Amino acid sequence: MALLEIKDLHTFFDTKKGTVKAVNGVSYSVDAGKTLGVVGESGSGKSVSAMSILRLLDNNGRVDSGEIIFDGKNIQDCTKKEMYKIRGNDISVIFQEPMTSLNPVFTIERQLSEPFIIHQGMKKKEARKKVVEMLAAVKIPNPESVAKQYPHQLSGGMRQRVMIAIALACQPKLLIADEPTTALDVTIQAQILKLMNELKKEKGTSILFITHDLGVINEMADDVAVMYCGQVVEMAPARKIFTKQKYSHPYTEGLMESIPRLDTPTGVRLEAIPGAVPHPLDLPKGCKFAPRCKYATDKCREEEPALVKIEENHQIRCFYPDKEMRKDGK
Ligand SMILES: Nc1ncnc2c1ncn2[C@@H]1O[C@H](COP(=O)(O)OP(=O)(O)OP(=O)(O)O)[C@@H](O)[C@H]1O
Ligand code: SF4
Ligand SMILES: [Mg+2]
Questions:
Q1: Is the C-beta atom of 305 inside 6 A of ligand 2?
Q2: pLDDT of amino acid 269
Q3: Residue 46 in contact with ligand 1 by CB distance below 6 A
Q4: How do residues 144-175 score in pLDDT, each as one tens digit?
Q5: Contact, 22 vs 12, CB < 8 A?
Q6: C-alpha distance from residue 223 to each of 152, 209, 282 (Å)
Q7: Which of 137, 189, 244, 293 has minimal Cβ neighbours within 10 Å of its Cβ?
Q8: 321 lines ligand 2 (CB under 6 A)
């Protein structure tokens, strides 16, 4: 059953140069106790769609239309106060750079114990004990001494563990992880991913895992949504995306071919997908992927394909989802 369901979400930003349609009709769902991996190049709308759920958009941003159903309730109907409660109790977020989320002037113990003292009315001593337990749960060695340290005294990997501890402290139903390991080196990244998978199994937390790295998705996701230019272009169980099969989106195909190269710095062109993501204020007519797609036809350049159910649990936004048809037909 879906814990979170986004239906036909449109999130726009008003800018001096025009309206940026950052999220343009996105639908996806996260099942209870499962991980949905959202993947796509920079600027595809991965973060904006997630931040729309939490209503944490920049001031010039707005959800123009669509539904966000969380735990059976339309989040759009929630008051500010109800949203505040959802963010504190039901949905937690981990971002790429933990330093920006941690307050540099307070010890880890102080920042972690505060919510327990304020929201749960715990005594200081009790809250401190809880903090050490939380740090131990995310496998931080010597949790008592780490609790006394300031954020800058910890390594990037340790800080990200602290963020996971904070995010999981209220036992959220949904954890949104937006590129949580991108800033970390490969070994630490593997440890953090393993930890998140263990916590998911233990606590049954659902995870919305955002990344530009299909390799990471392969480690983490039960289901995958591939995004391009503010839209979902393919959605399927991870095993379908990662096994050779009859149907796929040409963009997913390109991402798969470039897996070993995906750890290049942002902005570096992926060899398997020629060209660059179009500017959001200058999107092409027809299929948004057409200028970069080696299978594009005149029809693709004129008409926009819809996201269509190809088979059970598998949707693709392409006129030619059958790989054979692409090779033979054109
Ligand atoms: N405040 C804003 N004003 C105008 N445009 C914005 C604003 N915030 C985001 N955008 C635009 O929305 C689009 C989607 O951005 P988003 O951050 O969701 O991309 P992303 O897929 O998360 O990329 P990345 O992998 O770089 O994090 C981009 O074109 C971005 O420039
Ligand atoms: S609709 Fe055409 S251009 Fe778009 S992804 Fe499919 S084949 Fe490529
Ligand atoms: Mg992002």
A1: yes
A2: 45
A3: yes
A4: 999 999 999 998 888 888 888 888 777 889 99
A5: yes
A6: 36, 10, 31
A7: 244
A8: no
pLDDT number for residue 165? 84
Of 154, 171, 188, which residue sits at a domain end?
171
Examine the domain organization and report whether 54 and 194 are in the same domain: yes
Do 224 and 235 contact (CB within 8 A), yes or no?
yes
Q: Are residues 125 and 36 in the same domain?
A: no
Verify that 58 and 20 share a domain, yes or no: yes
**86 CA → ligand 3 middle, Å:** 22
Containing domain of residue 55, as a range?
Answer: 2-90+172-329
CA-nearest residue for atom 2, ligand 1, is 13
At 92-131, the pLDDT tens digits run 988 877 666 788 899 999 988 987 888 778 899 999 999 9
* DSSP structure class, residue 170: T
Task: Report the b/e string of 153-169 with b at 16+ CB within 10 A.
Answer: ebebbbbbbbbbbbbbb
Count of domains for the chain:
2
Closest atom of ligand 2 to CA, residue 305: 1
Question: Which residue of 300, 316, 317 sits with most ligand 2 atoms within 8 Å of its CB, as the best mutation to test the pocket?
Answer: 300
Tokens of 154: 């910890």
Tokens of 293: 């797609």
The reply to whether 143 and 235 lie within a common domain is: no
Mean pLDDT confidence for 74-85:
90
Give the closest ligand to the alpha carbon of residue 292: 2
Residue nearest to atom 4 of ligand 1 (CA): 13
**Which DSSP helix (H) or strand (E) runs through 6?**
strand 2-15
Amino acid 265: pLDDT: 53
139 plus 282 within the same structural domain: no
- Residue 27 alpha carbon to ligand 1 centre in Å: 18
- Is 229 found in the same domain as 126? no
Does residue 142 sit in the same domain as residue 166? yes
148 and 262 together in one domain? no
What confidence score (pLDDT) does residue 52 get?
95
Domain boundary, last residue among 171, 188, 215 = 171
